[in-house]
Structures are given as structure tokens and as C-alpha cells.
């Protein structure tokens, strides 16, 4: 038996020129920490539920793990997403009717004299708030799913195109319902358009909520409920007539839209915390006033009111106001928890 038939000795195995027989053994590493002596081997790749070691890790240490490391350009910390700045609801002009003091106007807005029949008014208010309740129920159910279900959060962060597709649906249905009297009054097309609009805006709202922690979402929800109840009670009790200030609300709507466009453009290039919070504060205050304005148009005991045929428009107006208040408050609370 020749010497080559015996397994190699210890001294020979340490020789870097040694070539294993049969090709079944791995080649020694060519790095500065060989497996055979020298420096110690690196720790194995982590697995299991606690797969990431504690302490700061280098960016990109474990590629392919979504939400592990923040992207540049967005706020981080509690109340903010780990993947950058959350999207904002698109800056669209708030629902602003063109009030017509004459009964039977094309826009469906009449003077208070056409509301002499109290039973018609009460039935109209009940119908509007019933539709609004269903809209808010659907929206906040979707927000709850987007907030508490982690796979949904992951899907949202990986598929931003769905958000922009829902924005396109939201914008088209919003324009049709506000500007086109025929589809807005014709059943069942008005209900179908309103349902599509609600689902699109619900997805957008849920997407934004998924970027914030649960505490911020719940707190924003609670404050929104309190604000809406207080504004509604105030509008039913006060003698202040918001419907007579149509010019002020028109200017306010334009200011909110222009401010939103400027803020969206600036934040897309560089995140400025104070600008984001300022826009959120302006939006929350403005849509609280719009909620009071649309509520008084609905109850019909002021200078101008909504025609009883415009129950879809009434529900649409209140729904947009409530959702915008919620989103703006969520941005403020999320920013406050970060600072």
C-alpha cells in the first residue's frame, strides 16, 4: 500500500497547497480567517424568531427584509413608518357647493324657505346620516385591518402603485359626484358611485394609517369622534350662520388646496418636519370649519340649505370632512410622538 492511500497527517492538512482527495471536501477559505486555525470564524447567519441580533446593525446587513432599515428622506421613530414618509391624501379642493338662493336651482341648493315641511327635513337628515354611518363603518373597518394585520402592512409598503390607482378612482368619482347633477341624483348610479368613492378613499386612508403605530391611530380616531360630535351639537344649537359665509369658505378651500400642493412638492424632495406639521394643523382646522358649514347646509334652518334630493351630496360632504380631519390629526399625533 502506497503512502498516498493513507489519510493525510495533521501537518499536511495545514498546508494551504493541500488538495483534498475525491473532491468531497470543501476548499479552505482564502480569507484572513481560515476555518483551520487562525482567527475565529464569524457567527453563523441568524435564523429563527430572534433572527436579528440586538444593537445597531450596518445598513443592508440583511437584505430583503422589508421594514428593517429606514429609507432616507422620511421621519423615523414612534408614530412614523420605518420605510419613509407616509403618503398624504391628495390636495383636492374641498366640497364647495355653489349656493343658489332660488328654489329649484341647477345645483340643488335652495333658500331656507323651501324647508317649511319639517318631516321632509328630518327624513332627509336621517337618510344622510345613515349613509354617512355606513361609509364611516366601512372606512374604519379597513383602517383597522391595515393597522393590526401585519401582512396587509407589508403588502401596502411593497405596492405603492395600488395607492395611486385608488387615488385615480377617488379623483374621478369625486369630480363626477360633485360636478354632475344627473349621476348624483339618479338611483342606483348615485349609490354605486358613492360606494366606489368610499372604497377608494378607505384604501387611501388605510394606507396612510398603516405607516403609523397603533397608539397614534387610536388616539387620532378618538379625537376625531370627539371633534365631530362637538361640531355637530354646536351647529344644531348655535345662532351663528356659517352658510352665509360662502365666500370665506371658498377662499379657505383654495388656500388649503394650494398649501397642500406646495407642501406635497416640497416634501417629495426633502422632508421638513415643521412644514408637514404646519400643513396638518391648517388642514385640521380648515376641515373642522368645513364640517360646521356642511352640517348647517344639511339641517336647513339657515340662509342656505341642501335640497332634499341631494342626500348623496350631503353624505359625501360630511364624509370627506370627517376623513380629512382624521388624517390630519393622525399626522399631527404621529409627528408629536416622534419629537
Automatic annotation (TrEMBL):
Alphabetized InterPro entries for the sequence: Bax_inhibitor_1-related
Record's compositionally biased regions (Low complexity): 63-73
Spans annotated as Disordered: 1-83
Membrane topology: Multi-pass membrane protein
Compartments, as annotated in UniProt: Membrane
Entry keyword annotation includes Isomerase: no
GO cellular component, one term: endoplasmic reticulum
CDD domains, A to Z: LFG_like
Keywords, alphabetical: Membrane, Transmembrane, Transmembrane helix
Annotated GO biological process: negative regulation of apoptotic signaling pathway
Top-level taxon in the UniProt lineage: Eukaryota
Bilayer-spanning residue ranges: 128-149, 161-179, 191-212, 218-236, 248-272, 278-299, 311-333
Classification via PANTHER family: BAX INHIBITOR-RELATED, PROTEIN LIFEGUARD 3
Family designation: Belongs to the BI1 family.
Protein name from the UniProt record: Transmembrane BAX inhibitor motif containing 1
Taxonomic source organism: Scleropages formosus
Amino acid at each position: 500500500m502506497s503512502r498516498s492511500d493513507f489519510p493525510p497527517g495533521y501537518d499536511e492538512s495545514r498546508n494551504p497547497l493541500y488538495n483534498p482527495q475525491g473532491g468531497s471536501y470543501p476548499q479552505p477559505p482564502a480569507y484572513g480567517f481560515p476555518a483551520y486555525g487562525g482567527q475565529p470564524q464569524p457567527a453563523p447567519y441568524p435564523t429563527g424568531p430572534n433572527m436579528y441580533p440586538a444593537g445597531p446593525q450596518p445598513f443592508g446587513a440583511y437584505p430583503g427584509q422589508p421594514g428593517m432599515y429606514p429609507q432616507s428622506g422620511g421621519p423615523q421613530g414612534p408614530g412614523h413608518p420605518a420605510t419613509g414618509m407616509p403618503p398624504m391624501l391628495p390636495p383636492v379642493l374641498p366640497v364647495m357647493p355653489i349656493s343658489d338662493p332660488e328654489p329649484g336651482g341647477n345645483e340643488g341648493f335652495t333658500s331656507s324657505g323651501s324647508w317649511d315641511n319639517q318631516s321632509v327635513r328630518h327624513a332627509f337628515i336621517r337618510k344622510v346620516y345613515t349613509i354617512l354611518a355606513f361609509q364611516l363603518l366601512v372606512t374604519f373597518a379597513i383602517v383597522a385591518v391595515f393597522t393590526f394585520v401585519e401582512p396587509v402592512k407589508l403588502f401596502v409598503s411593497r405596492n405603492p402603485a395600488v395607492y395611486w390607482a385608488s387615488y385615480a378612482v377617488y379623483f374621478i368619482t369625486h369630480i363626477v359626484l360633485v360636478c354632475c347633477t344627473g349621476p348624483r341624483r339618479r338611483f342606483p348610479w348615485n349609490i354605486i358611485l358613492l360606494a366606489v368613492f368610499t372604497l377608494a378613499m378607505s384604501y387611501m386612508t388605510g394606507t396612510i394609517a398603516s405607516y403609523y403605530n397603533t397608539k397614534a391611530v387610536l388616539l387620532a380616531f378618538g379625537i376625531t369622534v370627539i371633534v365631530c360630535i362637538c361640531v355637530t351639537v354646536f351647529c344644531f344649537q348655535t345662532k351663528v350662520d356659517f352658510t352665509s359665509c360662502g365666500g370665506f369658505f371658498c377662499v379657505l378651500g383654495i388656500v388649503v388646496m394650494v398649501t397642500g400642493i406646495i407642501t406635497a412638492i416640497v416634501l417629495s424632495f426633502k422632508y421638513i418636519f415643521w412644514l408637514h406639521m404646519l400643513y396638518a394643523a391648517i388642514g385640521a382646522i380648515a376641515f373642522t370649519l368645513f364640517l360646521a358649514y356642511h352640517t348647517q347646509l344639511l339641517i336647513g334652518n339657515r340662509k342656505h340649505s341642501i335640497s332634499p334630493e341631494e342626500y348623496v351630496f350631503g353624505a359625501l360632504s360630511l364624509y370627506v370632512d370627517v376623513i380629512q380631519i382624521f388624517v390630519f390629526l393622525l399626522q399631527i399625533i404621529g409627528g408629536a410622538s416622534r419629537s
